[in-house]
Amino acid sequence: MGTKANSLLAGMEDTPRGRILAAAAHLFQKKGFERATVRDLAQAVGMQSGSIFHHFKTKEEILRNVMIEVIRFNTERMEQELKNAKDIRGKVLALMKSELQSVNGETGEAMAVLIYEWRSLKPESQQEILELREVYEQMWLNVFDDAKEAGLIEEDVDTFILRRFITGALGWSNFWYKPGGALDISALAEKSLSLVLKGKC
Amino acid sequence: MGTKANSLLAGMEDTPRGRILAAAAHLFQKKGFERATVRDLAQAVGMQSGSIFHHFKTKEEILRNVMIEVIRFNTERMEQELKNAKDIRGKVLALMKSELQSVNGETGEAMAVLIYEWRSLKPESQQEILELREVYEQMWLNVFDDAKEAGLIEEDVDTFILRRFITGALGWSNFWYKPGGALDISALAEKSLSLVLKGKC
DNA sequence: GTCTATAGAGGGATAGAC
DNA sequence: GTCTATCCCTCTATAGAC
């Protein structure tokens, strides 16, 4: 569970706001949203707790923004990587690699927050986040459907359910995968391909 | 996320202790351990908050016992179902079905607590729970190794990693699978088989 | 074994000076 | 934009009556 210095949301500017969000991603992942206090957070960015509320109206607002930033960043990255893929197998691999990167790379802590602190969002925020995620999910479904037409995925496989299995399989890697070992993200992505592709193309 | 009446840990006696644990599984899943208060819990079982502490020394102790009970129950059930399986494919199917049942059936809420409230355990409790889970995990690994020898799983697949992918894939079903629809647990288990078995036996 | 009452600690958020 | 000070609330856990 990433004790590494991957606590900074990549691409986040070095502003008080950015520093608060980066520290929040780290703290919320480590202790959980409820246990992590605004005082903890203030200390992490070198402020007094009262000052935090100049940048965000409530603690929940901080959580919401961590989630928005991480979805935006990872959706954009996946779009880029999809464009670079040559064939369909390459596209599936790009999706796998991209998501494993999201979960285990620099945005890993924020992704864990996105997944595990869901209940701490207000219902309105949940709705908002859900809509952002749908764009991302649609990219997966489109590629899976193409792969099915191309014969890389069995005819009788429900791609909707398959995507859900994969969401779980890849998301869970946050709990056990340790970057820097013998197995790098690319290799892990290759292994994950056999969960999806027929035979084992 | 199960709003159904699956809040009772099957096999749990109708004692104050049992009722507290069953209500705790439900509440901790719904609100998270931190947000769920002892007062909530007391109300759910028809007591005053002070009375809860006659049965459990601390709130964490309640969490710990929910986890212990659900592991014990599901480990035992899986052992039984494994015995009934005829061949190796049947054993893999039994594992899948059994775990999907744990996650989505009567013990679903307690399983979600086991997975998502991990950080709220004291380190000593974490160690204890980890040891209980290892027995369960070993059953999976043994069957996977048999399946590999029998040629049902590709030679070059790392069964350790495969098990981790499957843990995630099946565990995540708690968030989207709704029992009572067109797809029952057995059918879902069959679908999940293709994540593991070669070709798609 | 359950109740009432409350101690004791820590939390989110606000107000106003600088 | 950050600080100090603090309000006000809620929470876990305890004490002692019944």
List keywords for this structure.
homodimer; 201 residues; mainly alpha; Tetracycline Repressor, domain 2; 9 helices; 68% helix; disordered N terminus; DNA-binding
Give an overview in words.
- The structure is a homodimer of 201-residue chains.
- The first copy, chain A, is mainly α.
- Chain A has a domain of 136 residues: Tetracycline Repressor, domain 2.
- Helix content of chain A is 68%, strand content 0%.
- Chain A is built from nine helices and no strands.
- The longest helix of chain A is centred in the last third of the chain and has 27 residues.
- Chain A is elongated and about 60 Å long.
- The N terminus of chain A is likely disordered.
- The interface between A and B is medium-sized, with 31 and 31 residues.
- Chain A binds a DNA duplex (18 and 18 nucleotides) through helix 3.
CATH fold name of the domain at 58-193 in chain A: Tetracycline Repressor, domain 2
Q: State the helix count of chain A.
A: 9
First-residue to last-residue Cα separation of chain A: 32 Å
Task: Determine the most extensive contact between two protein chains.
Answer: A-B, 31 and 31 residues
Write the SSE topology.
The structure is a homodimer of 201-residue chains.
Chain A: H1 16-31, H2 38-45, H3 49-55, H4 59-84, H5 88-104, H6 108-116, H7 123-149, H8 159-176, H9 185-193
The first copy, chain A, binds a DNA duplex (18 and 18 nucleotides) through helix 3.
